[in-house]
TrEMBL record:
The keyword Transferase applies. This is GNAT family N-acetyltransferase. One of its GO terms (molecular function) is acyltransferase activity, transferring groups other than amino-acyl groups. The keyword DNA-binding does not apply. Pfam families: Acetyltransf_1 (PF00583).
Length: 159
């Protein structure tokens, strides 16, 4: 019987810096997201989150509570998820799915009052679309033109 490693979400702290600086992505993924080191600025409306496996950072994303969210939803209680990535050396182990499966309880605990997570995924990024759908994100039918053409706006209810 295979035992799965422990995966958890944690708000970013500078203790994660060394591992996050070592993140790499293949070129075909870099076009769709940013490396964690580029997104570590913390302020009241931007919340970097680290996916840990056995206490080691293996993934990263940012939750936004800024006016930028209004570009994706009319819900005043929503947050925007951006810059999702899994370190290339850790891909293919189910860590992205297992980390995102914890998104609802994490947001309920860390961001009281948030009842929806929205994100934009590039129409060409089929693996990401499938991952988000497995977690429970739904295509809202809204579209946004991003740096690399059309993006699908997806939503996850936190309730």
């Amino acid at each position: 019987m295979k035992v799965e490693t422990q995966v958890e979400l944690q708000l970013y702290s500078s203790a994660h810096d060394e591992q996050l600086k070592r993140f790499s992505l293949p070129q075909e993924q870099e076009q769709f997201t940013a490396l964690p080191i580029e997104m570590l600025e913390v302020h009241p409306e931007k919340h970097p989150v680290v996916i840990l496996s056995e206490q080691v950072p293996v993934g990263f994303f940012v939750l936004h509570a800024s006016d930028q969210v209004k570009e994706y939803t009319d819900n005043p209680h929503a947050m925007l998820l951006t810059s999702f990535s899994i370190n290339f050396t850790q891909q293919g182990k189910g860590l992205a799915r297992r980390g995102l499966e914890q998104l609802r309880p994490f947001v309920r605990h860390q961001f009281l009052g948030c009842d929806e997570i929205v994100l934009a995924v590039n129409q060409k990024n089929i693996p990401a679309q499938k991952l988000y759908e497995k977690i429970g994100f739904q295509d809202t039918g809204r579209r946004k033109i991003g740096p690399l053409r059309k993006q699908y706006i997806m939503s996850l209810s936190i309730e």
